[in-house]
Write a structure and sequence with these properties.
The chain is α/β, with parallel strands linked by helices and about 350 residues long. It has 2 domains: about 270 residues, Divalent-metal-dependent TIM barrel enzymes (TIM Barrel, Alpha-Beta Barrel); about 55 residues, no CATH class. It has an 8-stranded parallel β-barrel, surrounded by 8 helices. A 4-stranded antiparallel beta sheet has the order 3-6-4-5. Strands 12-13 form a two-stranded antiparallel ribbon. The protein is globular, with a radius of gyration of 22 Å. The protein starts with a strand and ends in an 8-residue tail after the last helix.
Length: about 350
């Protein structure tokens, strides 16, 4: 099955919540949604008012961690399944798309009912390779996204990794350590989403195809995903012929978690660096060519529009794919000549 969807809230949506986005994506004739954890306020404060409650019972925020003092007075995480005690500290997310766990759960159930596959995107400004405060904060943001993703039953959480440190070899080593830590804290075996590491569109950022495949070999719970405009930019415009797309699809399909997850838009680039995402009809990265590459493939594929035109271009991709599929059927079933 080929699914088409968008990254973010539909541009035509009147509402701005997670539940409304699921409904609107379905009404647009699409069946995949990448929810983005953006415009989020995070607070850490005493939990006195929540004493005796569990985080999932709190109505006004999404509590992603409970911290409790140990015998030495140091606060340690005890998890969101714990009942909150008077002297605890909570870490809360205040998000414009969902205000509590009930809304996450309801949106996830609605998505299943409407056959809309859910994924999430962690905050964009991540540097998991940093060995200081920035790296630790990035790790926390990824973990919190996985917690929210689990609550809404998302299949995967998409993330960027960060800037190369020292050299590519050392950066890969650090990435393996970080993602191993993430996988142990939030394992798919406990119904957390898969961590889906995105390709980079800039030379100084971790995420070349070789980086991601090497990472996935070392950390099996990590899924490298295809961002076509990023790959096209980083390789100086290499995705031109059908075979170019097929090579990328073949490489990433070895590590896919059931469906091959991809993102597409037009793109402008210079000196092996992405400069701007554009509408799909612009530039030399052509969806028509990708459609030719995927029409004969056997595996399930999800195509997410990251174009500035979002749902318009998702629908356009769907139309192009249907035309390509129709042509394929016509070639396989030639019309017999009439007998006179």
């Amino acid at each position: 099955m080929i699914r088409f969807g968008i990254a973010g809230i539909p541009l035509t949506s009147k509402g701005r919540t997670f539940i409304e986005s699921v409904e609107d994506v379905h009404n647009l004739g699409l069946n995949a949604l990448e929810v983005q954890l953006l415009r989020v306020n995070i607070e850490e404060r005493p939990a006195l008012e929540y004493t005796g409650m569990k985080p999932k019972d709190v109505d006004g925020s999404i509590i992603v961690e409970v911290l409790r003092s140990d015998e030495n007075g140091n606060y340690r995480p005890v998890g969101i399944e714990s009942t909150i005690e008077e002297d605890d500290i909570v870490q809360e997310i205040f998000w414009n798309m969902a205000k509590n766990y009930d809304e996450l759960r309801e949106g996830g159930e609605l998505a299943k009912e409407l056959d809309v596959n859910l994924s999430m995107h962690a905050p964009y400004y991540m540097d998991l390779l940093d060995d200081g405060d920035i790296g630790e904060k990035s790790y926390d943001h990824l973990r919190w996204t996985l917690i929210a993703g689990k609550a809404m039953q998302a299949k995967r959480v998409v993330t960027h990794t960060g800037f190369y440190k020292v050299n590519k070899k050392e950066s890969l080593k650090r990435a393996i350590e970080v993602y191993t830590r993430v996988a142990k804290a939030c394992p798919p075996s406990e119904n957390f989403p898969f961590v889906s590491v995105e390709c980079s569109g800039k030379a100084e950022i971790f995420g070349a195809t070789s980086d991601l495949t090497a990472l996935a070999k070392k950390v099996p719970d990590v899924e490298p995903i295809i961002n076509f405009p990023h790959i096209h930019s980083l390789t100086g415009g290499s995705l031109i012929e059908i075979k170019d797309f097929e090579e990328v699809l073949d490489e990433f399909s070895k590590f896919s978690k059931g469906d091959l997850y991809t993102e597409f838009s037009g793109v402008e680039y210079q000196d092996h660096n992405e400069t701007k995402l554009t509408a799909i009809k612009h530039g030399d990265l052509k969806f028509e060519t990708l459609a030719e590459a995927i029409v004969n493939r056997e595996e399930d594929i999800t195509l997410i529009s990251s174009s500035p035109l979002l749902e318009h271009d998702a629908q356009y991709m769907y139309l192009i794919y249907l035309r390509t599929f129709s042509k394929r059927l016509q070639k396989k079933s030639p019309v017999k000549k009439a007998i006179h």
